[in-house]
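User: hey, got a sec? need N-acetyltransferase domain-containing protein folded
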Amino acid sequence: MALRIRTGTEDDAPSLSRICLLTANAGTSSADLHDFGELPGLVYAVPYVKLPTTWAFVLEDDAREVVGYIVGSTDTRTFEKYAAEHWWPALTAKYPPDKAVKPADLQYVERLRNMNTAPDPNIACSPAHLHINILEKHQKQGWGRKMIATAVEFLIGEGLQGVWLGVDPRNERAKLFYQRVGFKQVEGADANQLGLRFDEFEWKEGKTN
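Assistant: Yep! Here you go:
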């Protein structure tokens, strides 16, 4: 089945939410961990087709089903400020702690009330950050590298020289992939914060993700 990368839009929000849920457990599905399966996407995916400073690209098959995405912000601090004022408050009202029963739901509900902000070393590395997820069926075919390349080209066009991401410490396979394409630990941050300088990006294709 042929795949292609295209610009993501707000209409893709349901697909981003679905993919996020199916990859939220260290790269595997967390669907059985949630009663509110939309919560991972509302934190890590959907805002990037809704809020200012954001961008998105999606991986789509020939049936026009979205099977992967790469999303981010060109200005993390502005994104955080806007989300704190306009995105998280509505969600905290919609998902009170007494509504969550399963531990994974409760974890997200608490996170909405105390959303992390990026460490200063990450911002020193780059104002831009990203998230990427691809459904397991389409991994290990080179699409992860291609999607990062698409994002890098876009961010260079925005005048940026690098980008960073946080990796789930349980997902060693993802961390190895990021390292192969040129990500390195952000200086001064913990081992799960990885940054990429665009002049160090490995543009060559490979069957890595």
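Quick note: The first strand starts at residue 3 and ends at 7. Let me know if you need anything else on N-acetyltransferase domain-containing protein.
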